[in-house]
Amino acid sequence: xxxxxxxxxxxxxxxxxxxxxxxxxxxxxxxxxxxxxxxxxxxxxxxxxxxxxxxxxxxxxxxxxxxxxxxxxxxxxxxxxxxxxxxxxxxxxxxxxxxxxxxxxxxxxxxxxxxxxxxxxxxxxxxxxxxxxxxxxxxxxxxxxxxxxxxxxxxxxxxxxxxxxxxxxxxxxxxxxxxxxxxxxxxxxxxxxxxxxxxxxxxxxxxxxxxxxxxxxxxxxxx
Length: 223
Hints:
Elements: H1 9-23, H2 30-37, H3 41-44, H4 51-65, H5 75-92, H6 108-123, H7 128-150, H8 161-170, H9 177-187, H10 197-214
Helix pairs in contact: 1-2, 1-4, 4-6, 5-7, 6-7, 7-10, 8-9
């Protein structure tokens, strides 16, 4: 008689990750995760209360994969490294984009991640309000960039000459002069890759935060 697999919370979440990676969150159910593990769905309820707990576990798992800010680094480099790690994890598991900030019962890895990011900023002189604004702006940028990158009609890591050439043919320069100019001067006939925009955009945010931190700009927050 075949031996029944030993279940645990971590094994169930790992199986749910595999299911989500193959078919997205729509495929994540107690039944499908049980099938992934070779057991009946009812067996999972000894370890998880239900699908909500399963989704909570997935959100927590995602944050367990993202590097925490290194407390030995200056805040800017720590934010750059954490952003790169988050981008890589979310690009590998795109189903997480609509999940990770939606849970009402955050797990320990999620809480530890958020606390570490805020702690890094606070230790480096950010006020509570500025740290909160920074966290929100950086993460919104990461999530938005990954979502855009994943849905481009071309490979974000490669040149876009072919796509840009097609667009140029469809965009009369006299009707869309600024788009035509950008395609001709910025995108076509150079080593352009949309993926490279990530660091540039992140630098714009960090430059602004650095200026706010140094007092070069009056803060707009009322808090």
